[in-house]
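Comment thread on ticket #2218

A.B. wrote:
> Attaching the input chain for the structure job we discussed in standup.
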Amino acid sequence: MGDARKLILWLLLIVCTIPLLSVAAAPAFPAADGGPAVQAENAILMDVNSKRVLFEKNADEPKAIASITKIMTAILAIEYGRLDDLVVVSPKASRMEGSSIYLRPGERVTLETLLYGLMLRSGNDAAVAIAEHVAGTEENFVYLMNVKAWELGMTHTHFANPHGLDEEGHYSTARDMALLSAYALKNPVFQEIVKTKQKRVAWPGEQWERSWLNKNKMLHFYDGADGVKTGYTRKSGRTLVSSATRGQQQLVVVTLNDPDDWRDHMRLLDYGFSQYPARLLLKEGQPVPIPAQWPATERTLEVAQTFYYPLAADEIEEIAAKVVFSPDARRRWTEGRSGDVVGQVHVVFRGKRIAELPVRIGERS
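C.D. wrote:
> Ran it. Output below, let me know if you need it in another format.
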């Protein structure tokens, strides 16, 4: 058993308390040290599962973000549309400037194909076609983008279009884009698209397939890379969101206006995986102490969910845990069934609650 789990088990054996009424969300904590030097004007490294911030540099400064905007466009299209929807390309979409997948007006293309064109080739024409299909007009879709941003807590973000070309009132921050990306990466369709290195698609009216290579070179440069999006305009400079997974941990990096983004992302990902690995703190089935005043039975109490959290080696001792039983826990202990939830384990780090894991009734083996 690792040091972290030994500490948690020891804490569970000595700490029990009365039920709590309030529920606290898992907060983000900055890294204790300065982390690697990066060329980006704005940068952040975030653990996807916990949302813990492991490194940041000017992460709350609003900036032009270019085509990483399309992360929001893609996740909304996935959530509001169906992949087999046939999208009719409008003249407006076909005339979009900048990066393109060369849509023609009147073409009928599946939403899934447009999503691959959006995220692998950064098609601005695909972005507008998707927006018009999902919401009727580009303006209506932008409204949905800003509503979603508000729901995700992207407090320094405002979208003005679905593609990311420079426009007044179109901006975000490294932190907000990390929050969005962490959310989107939990969607299996989104994750599958953005980790794709090359996609071959049949095209209506053509006898051959189109082959699209992903512009995100991190998929080739970095072991475990699995997303997400590149961007560039003259105003924004180079923008990049990348993600990588190793074992039980997925990290996401966002940089804005970074002339050395590929190297910076590799440095930051290396830093996160080496200095803040996901540590197993609690494991499903792990025993929980039974209160002494409860009647003896052949039953047990156990943690019902496995929990990992990114921690530096010298932070493990700052983890604490306590068991909080529900008001009817004793009755359920005597009258309920195996699997009934009777409380929670609250995991605390630096005075903040980072997890609430169910405690259930088990049976002695």
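A.B. wrote:
> Thanks. Noting for the ticket: Residues 9-32 have pLDDT under 50 and may be disordered.
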